[in-house]
Fold this protein.
Amino acid sequence: MWQFMAADLIKKPDILQTFTHDIKSMFFFLLWMALLFVNSSWQNPHTSFINDIFHPPVFGGSGGSVKAMYMQSDQLEMLKFPRNAHLTNLLHLGSQLLLFVIRNGQKGTFVMT
């Protein structure tokens, strides 16, 4: 399903898939499952974030643009899972890592904070 694919693979399906694409897919799947099945600080995430990211209007044959724009925003920093601090931390760290990869490619050093 393209909903969990890395945004750049959606935009350019002819590029070589790397392990970073797989990590991005795992992140989006975990985020989707958490939003569907774990209580979060977001009000009604089923109709806003999930529709924007996983079911956007398709422009130019893909939904990758919306996903890439969302990853570069600060929207995920506001997401909290009140009864699961570990899940909150994991998703925040994952979003920081993906943002680093989006901005720097596979070059550079990522430092966990």
About this structure: The first helix runs from residue 7 to 11. The mean pLDDT is 76. The two ends are 32 Å apart (CA to CA). The chain has one domain: 2-104.
